[in-house]
Design a protein that fits this description.
28 helices, alpha/beta, about 650 residues, 4 domains
Amino acid sequence: MQRKAVEWNDGPLLVLAGPGSGKTRVLTCRVARLLEESLDERFRILALTFTNKAAHEMKTRIAALAPGGEERAEINTFHGFCAQLLRQHGVHLGIKPNFEIYSRTADRQAVLENALRHQSDYYERNDLRLLPRIDALKNLLVGPEQAPQYLLSKNGGASKAVERIAQAYQLYEEELHRSNALDFNSLIFRACQLLEHPAFARHYQTIYRYWLIDEFQDTNTSQYALLRLMAGDSFRQVFAVADDDQTIYEWNGANVRRLRNLVTDFGCDVIQLTENFRCPPRIVEVANRLIVYNVQRTPSRRVTEAAKSASQNSRPQIQCRVFPGDEEEVSGIAQEIAALNPQERKNTIVLARNRAMLETLKAAFSNLNVDTTLLGRRDDFASPQMRWMVTCLKQINRPLDRRNMAALNEMFCNFAGMRVEPEDLSSRSETNQVTLLAAWVDAVREEEPSTLPAVEAVARLASGKMRLFDAVNEIIAFFDERHTAHDDFKDDVSAWRRIEREIRQVRGSVALDQFLQEMELRSKEPAPASGAVSLATIHGAKGLEFDTVYLIGMAEDILPSWHSIQKENGNAAIEEERRGCFVAITRTKQHLILSRAESYNGRLRKPSRFLKEMDLLNLSSNDALRNGSQPTAPMTIV
């Protein structure tokens, strides 16, 4: 079935691919085959996914399979592709190519606050809570002009709340436009506005003859609308890989029904990949038992089969742990994993429904001197030195940006102890007829000579006397010499090097504005320490696989969460929680350990209903050894 999907030529196709079924292999092999069979042609292939990590992995695999051909494959995230589209054609919407991308919540809140404070009749701090409402409207492709009517249709009669949301949305967008900036959600929203003009859609249909969409079940309303607009009424060379059983981002607009929309709208044929090459047979069995309780599944969905044979390893494939309380659960699991050798710890991940449980577990590991890596997107660097350097690069790219200049000044003060007064900065700039950054550099030269090597590198880059990465290397080297024991700085440098490598691999030599845009779309998390135990939320574990997986908090009100149990549409909410549990247990390559406590925060909790659905409840409660904090005692084996 993998080969059938890889050899698919023309026409729309949906590949339903369960966990561990080789979907990435299918995608990359198909791209490589199309490239190899069209060496004399000039068309390109478009492959869209959801994370830069996934895009980087696909790019690397294709380069190995079809050396040289990868240059004809545009492999990107939805947001990265839209940023590229807007760089090329955004001028038709009044967007200059050197636009800045605001992905951090703090930046976006500052934009909204500035818009309301200076342009509205009144401003209240609570107005910042309107930002999620603006995000939701934008994800639904509802612009500021349509917002009042849309909100009234959803909320009934006119209200001051609706008026305030609509006004804040309008002012927020105007402020972004004045700054030539886009927030994260604007990338797709504005790209859709551009593609409403058929000429642009035809342009991309011509350039990219084949489109491949990874993790299609994760698309939200705006992402699917982007595909529909770009495809128009005639383009149908769409190849999508999806698994409705792994739809766990409904909070971001994903919907299990979107796969049916795809099949209907594009007339897709369907191929199913039903063999699981990752998980041991026992885990495939309990995963099948669990997921059949969901009614919102593709009706023709076939049962997943284990491609692996039963292991001869004496360690059982599934084990359960029961502890008296949540503190004992955390300390017990931490001690158990701490007893493993570094290689085993490196291949182990602990999953939980929420980040708070992981933070507690991280502290327990720290007390045992065990390194951990908390996986998840990080939108900004942690050290003031690296944040300052990036802010300097942004100021060079946008020399009139006073808000960014104020941030640069403040960050410098955090580690150098020196701040240039805004009035002095403006006066210097006007008197000497220089940019704000040049005026600031002059002030620092007078007051803080100890930081001059880094500041001078910024000045030479701004004046065109130094290349981007040479200046960056000089700044990093300076701070590295002065802050050798600064863990945050070392982690940030690790993250920077990875980002720089990825951008250079994908884009080659890029201008400063494009580099900053690409960097803003990438997570800033550092490389994990050698032998570190990985920690992740269930949502953050999507696409990962580990030899050993611990899933903690298997209790009612934890997994499934209290909020999902209380929702009016309880069945739909519980089904998403069940899919989350399904995703978590199918990250496993060898061993799965499920744990729960009998009480959390001092309140008794029943075992998770998912344990019963997997037919693990009796063994994990009645027959389980309540080991408390004795991880070396015999454990229940399933």
